[in-house]
Design brief:
9-stranded mixed sheet, 5-stranded mixed sheet, alpha/beta
Length: 359
């Protein structure tokens, strides 16, 4: 492992600490090194607040301030070059007279996308890019998918019995995953911007779709209710968390113009879809317009299978209770075209993580 790779790994470790806290911004870590010693480090902690480079330089002790221009700044994502909620980090680096910057990968956001690197180079900064690029891109795969494919990053999740059933045939609720798996699911929810369920799941399970078993942010709730037959007494409509209803009859907001800050105050909103175009494509387009970078699709079978059939998914997480048989019941989705990347056993439950194979 080269020194560049070693310090970039530290950047990635720092960046991961902000998982679930900075979206729609990317997770970014930064390290300042002088003569093979870290004299400053930081990461982007909270959306709308200081970026990794700012926190890194702010952490440098006063006794080391004179070493800043002679140090090498490592950052996992290209420094920004535009004014957003904070000033450009590229300008800060130039102002601090840092002579050398090592970058993990370019930022695909149109306001940056190479402009930060160009600004640094134009100011005489020595720039090295592409160090652990694959790992840096993977860390922010939600951010990259949103800005390059113009849709949310899609995680499918379901829990099934040993004989491949999601529930009883009459949709009556049955507990499949154990307490430990449930806590993991709530952690997964905290890591995504929205959670999606179908009509039958909402009607028969009456889920809250919160992160009550994990200390994290609640995702925006999304439900498919094509004919608006769900009763207003469901927990989804209690107003505690924004809920978007995809349907064929009602549209209440100009989603393409609404900001994220405004969106969290809407309560319940309706997005109208048509019958002549794929529901999945219309949902993804609507969520993209709303600025939703990632979704966790929790079911049921019909909704999950529609994403699978159109190859519109990035990850699938399947929890199997190896001690439960349901016999005649609702079948689990049929997963094809995925690669198993991780497996874990939690008592009666076995969890499999899949990534979709690239076309």
């Amino acid at each position: 492992m080269t020194p560049h790779e070693r310090y970039m790994l530290r950047c990635l470790h720092l960046a991961r600490q902000a998982s679930g806290d900075v979206a729609p911004n990317p997770m970014v870590g930064a390290v300042l090194v002088y003569e093979d010693e870290i004299i400053g480090e930081g990461y982007h902690r909270v959306y709308g607040q200081a970026h990794a480079e700012v926190n890194c330089l702010a952490s440098v002790k006063e006794a080391h301030r004179h070493l800043v221009p002679q140090g090498t700044l490592y950052v996992s994502l290209e420094p920004c070059a535009h004014f957003g909620k904070t000033p450009p980090c590229a300008d800060l680096i130039i102002r601090e007279k840092i002579a050398s910057v090592v970058v993990g990968c370019r930022d695909p956001f149109p306001e940056v996308n190479g402009k930060g690197l160009e600004k640094l180079q134009a100011a005489g900064v020595q720039v090295t890019s592409g160090v652990l690029e694959r790992e840096c891109r993977d860390l922010n795969r939600r951010f990259f998918t949103f800005h390059t494919q113009h849709r949310p990053y899609i995680v499918l999740k379901w829990a099934q019995s040993m004989d491949g059933k999601l529930a009883h045939a009459d949709y009556s609720r049955v507990r499949i995953s154990n307490d430990y798996s449930n806590r993991i699911v709530h952690r997964w929810r905290s890591e995504e911007m929205a959670i999606v369920v179908g009509t039958n799941t909402a009607l028969f399970d009456d889920p809250s779709l919160t992160t009550r078993l994990w200390p994290g942010k609640n995702p925006i709730r999304v439900v498919v209710d094509m004919n608006l037959r769900l009763p207003s007494t469901l927990k989804l409509f209690n107003g505690a968390i924004p809920t978007v209803v995809f349907n064929r009859h009602r549209h209440t907001l100009p989603f393409e113009k609404i900001s994220r800050d405004d969106f969290v105050s809407i309560g319940v909103a309706y997005y109208q879809v048509t019958e002549d175009t794929s529901l999945v494509h219309q949902m993804l387009n609507g969520l993209y317009q709303m600025g939703v970078q990632s979704i966790l699709v929790e079911g049921g079978t019909q909704l999950l299978q529609s994403f699978l059939d159109e190859s519109l998914w990035d990850e699938a997480r399947v929890i199997t209770n190896e001690q439960l048989l349901l016999g005649e019941g609702l079948p689990a989705p049929q997963l094809q075209g995925g690669t198993l990347v991780q497996e874990e056993t939690l008592f009666s439950d076995r969890i499999h993580w899949f990534r979709r194979n690239p076309r």
